[in-house]
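Why do we care about 3D structure at all? Because function follows from shape, and shape follows, mostly, from sequence. That is the central idea of this module. The next example makes it concrete: a single protein chain, its amino acid sequence, and then its structure expressed as tokens.
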Amino acid sequence: TLPLILGLSSRNFWIKTAFDYEQPRAKFRNEVIGFVYEPTKLSTFSTFGHVEELTSGNASRMTLPTITASSEDFNFDGIADEYTIETTLSMSAGDLRNLKLLLFFDYSFEDSVKLTTVGMAYIDINTPAGASQIHTVGDLDFHQKKPLLKTPRGVSNYNQLPFSTDDFDTLNLYSILSEYTNRNETISYDYNTYTMPAATNQNQVTLQAHIQIPSNQEIVYQPGLMLVLKTAWPQYLALAYITWFVVASLMLFVYKNGIFRASVLSTLPEAVTDQRKNK
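And the structure:
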């Protein structure tokens, strides 16, 4: 009982969270929303169609740019290690002041925790003097506010877009970002930007995003009963041994030094006891 009490009074006797590392499976959904800011106007484009409502009708619809996507599997394990997504806009390169892109991915874990979600890479680039080519390089990182539940069926609480394509008239960029960041599981694109200045009379802007998938993404989850017991019983045995050693050493010290008075009690019959005394 005493070792158990000592264990429960210490931290992490019963572990509440555990972590592991795994390479996520990411797949580009070929779904994009874009906002193009010029000195005198705002234009939008989307693979979903009616996107001008996202700005309350204050934007003009831009012709859908040319979007190409390719993936690389550097270690040949069947899991994409990097995506290259290129977006080519037909516009005056010198007039570009800001470009915002929302790129949507299917994102999942299969080994440590079964999780399926739809995530979003958000790119926001300022170009005060315009730009002809923009390059971004970074990682598509996984974020979570609370530990995941480890269940045989897996978790798929956010296996949909952070908005409904039927409700564009009630949405805007802020509401999409707000709804997305309120999720427990999200992904984000942490990138560096490199731009090339706009050439004279250049009527094309190219954004090339290099999105790398981390090979060892940390996952925090709630452990199952077997893992809890696996980490608890060595602690219990260690505390039990220490407790036994301390108590036994204390009893031996007390007995040898006669700290307390003691007498020998015998349960043998009196005749046997007298016979031993006569000897």
